[in-house]
Write a structure and sequence with these properties.
The protein is mostly beta strands. It is built from one helix and 41 strands. The protein has a domain of about 190 residues.
Length: about 525
């Protein structure tokens, strides 16, 4: 057994190893292997170890790192640079609540305090409650992981997890989770930046989407599959960008009683304090989205920009393409969905439902085609439709909107009736209208202004500007989280609580900094 003494959490070249998803809360360690060298309390090397290459690989190929301690880690890197390759990491043991979800307790592999950890060709397994596999915590912390396999089976045990402003770069991973609330690509309070290139990411558990974003997450050329939950969830002022991604979603069980809708992609604000309030963003370019049950998009209690370009979208779920509506999150009467949907060279099939406290601005551009109806049951929320650049809307049912900008040949009524602000539209008529002003409730107060001259909505402040093509969204506002004094509230039985209504935890979705 290899050990590294750590007195007063002295920064060693490599800190105690802890890999794979784990559970949290006290216990003992069996057969823990950690990499040399030993570093003295003063931070110097013993005489028989007069040099160390910080950042060089420290493990031998084929090594095994095991930890069964509640709350412990198989590999922990605290403020240092380290590399691990071709190792097997196994984590058992349990934990509870915020210590694990926000601050990384009980994760198999944990990097913090500005560490830079590189992992390659790893095999990581966790079997515990709140046992995330690979965890990046805090501003300046970077985890690069490639060509590795991750399997988690406990509740609240994500594959790769990022909080507190950390950075996670993943390439060609195979992640499979089976527990409840165990997203393959997972984030929580304080968010951060996550970039995923290639790989396969599959979830089976209740409340376990392939991606749960309280961060800025970009996925390129990968496959995402959820067999029980949504495929993607974006909470609050955060983002998900998919480029040439294959997403297969079969949301067939509810994680709470706050909504009776099933969907492939959910964009919402829980008001729990885990995500700042403001404009959420979802973008997909190329690839495909396949939905097996319910709606494709559901937006509730937040404002969002949805941008689609050349995505093959199939809805076998029998629901709407887009539903913007109230649900159990937020304050009744102001908790609808506020949506800017921009389709560029995009085909859309299916209806769009906008309830009476929700808003939709729909932009069809560059030869896009929309075959569907908007509010076929009658007028409800405010809807603006803008059709340009040879795009076409073919109605599949009677539709009701409030304002319209189109060319004379932009709309095929197909035998149905289109009502615009209570008046029947005549096919072959060009129109010029105005977009609906969208303001984000609560924290997103700057709002979006109705566009002049038919342009897309202009944001009222820098933080609400949409990303330019190819540009990565900015990091979340605020300082890295601090860990509060005292014990966090416990979560029982390994089951995550429902996101509460009303105002949630500490401001802006950022937890306090973890102390030394």
């Amino acid at each position: 057994m290899k050990t590294i003494p750590m007195t007063g959490r002295i920064a060693a070249a490599i800190v105690t190893a802890t890999l794979m998803l784990t559970g949290c809360a006290g216990g003992s360690v069996d057969n823990v292997k950690t990499a040399p060298p030993v570093v003295s309390e003063e931070g110097s090397l013993p005489s028989d170890q007069d040099s160390v290459s910080v950042g060089a690989p420290v493990n031998e190929a084929g090594e095994t790192f095991d930890n069964n301690e509640d709350g412990g880690h198989a590999i922990e890197i605290d403020g240092d640079t380290a590399e691990y390759s071709k190792a097997t990491v196994t984590k058992t043991g349990d934990s509870e609540g915020d210590e694990a979800d926000f601050y990384g307790e009980n994760s198999a592999i944990f990097a913090t305090n500005g560490a830079h950890l590189t992992l390659s060709d790893m095999n990581i397994t966790t079997n515990g409650t709140h046992a995330n596999a690979v965890f990046s915590y805090g501003e300046g912390t970077v985890v690069d992981i490639s060509n590795s396999t991750i399997e988690t089976s406990g509740n609240c045990s994500g594959g790769i997890m990022t909080t507190g402003g950390g950075t996670m770069n993943a390439s060609n991973l195979t992640i499979h989770t089976t527990g409840r609330s165990s997203a393959a690509i997972r984030s929580d309070r304080g968010g951060g930046t996550v970039t995923v290139n290639g790989g396969n990411y599959t979830t089976e558990g209740l409340g376990s989407p392939a991606i749960y974003s309280t961060a800025d997450i970009t996925v390129n050329d990968a496959s995402l599959t959820s067999t029980t939950s949504q495929g993607v969830v974006v909470e609050g002022k955060n983002s998900v960008t998919l480029n040439n991604v294959v997403l297969n979603a079969d949301n067939n069980q509810h994680n709470s009683d706050k909504s009776d809708v099933f969907e492939a992609i959910m964009i919402y604000q829980s008001m729990s304090g885990d995500a700042a309030e403001g404009l959420a963003k979802f973008s997909a370019t190329g690839g495909q989205i396949s939905n097996a049950n319910g709606d494709v998009f559901f937006v509730n209690n937040t404002a969002t920009d949805i941008t689609l370009s050349k995505v093959n979208i199939t809805n076998n779920g029998g629901g709407a393409f887009l539903r913007a509506a109230a649900a159990g999150w937020g304050n009744e009467g102001s908790n609808g969905g506020k949506v800017n949907l921009t389709a560029t060279s995009q085909k859309i099939e299916g209806d769009m439902i906008v309830d009476d406290i929700s808003v939709l601005n729909l932009y069809l551009k560059d030869g896009s085609a929309f075959n569907g109806a908007i509010n076929p049951e009658g007028s409800a929320g405010d809807v603006y439709v803008e059709i340009t650049d040879g795009s076409k809307w073919t109605l599949t049912g009677d539709s009701n909107i409030n304002s319209l900008t189109c060319e004379a040949d932009s709309i095929d009524l197909n035998g149905y009736t289109l009502m615009v602000d209570g008046k029947k539209y005549t096919e072959g008529t060009a129109c010029s209208g105005e977009a609906v002003e969208i303001k984000s409730e609560g924290g997103g107060r700057e709002g979006m202004q109705a566009p002049p001259d038919g342009d897309e909505p202009q944001m009222g402040g820098k933080d609400m500007e949409p990303p330019k093509d190819g540009e990565r969204p900015s990091k979340p506002d605020g300082e890295p989280p601090e860990k509060p004094d005292g014990d966090p509230p416990a979560k029982t039985d390994g089951q995550p609580p429902e996101k509460p209504d009303g105002m949630g935890g500490p401001g802006g979705g950022n937890p306090p900094d973890k102390p030394e």
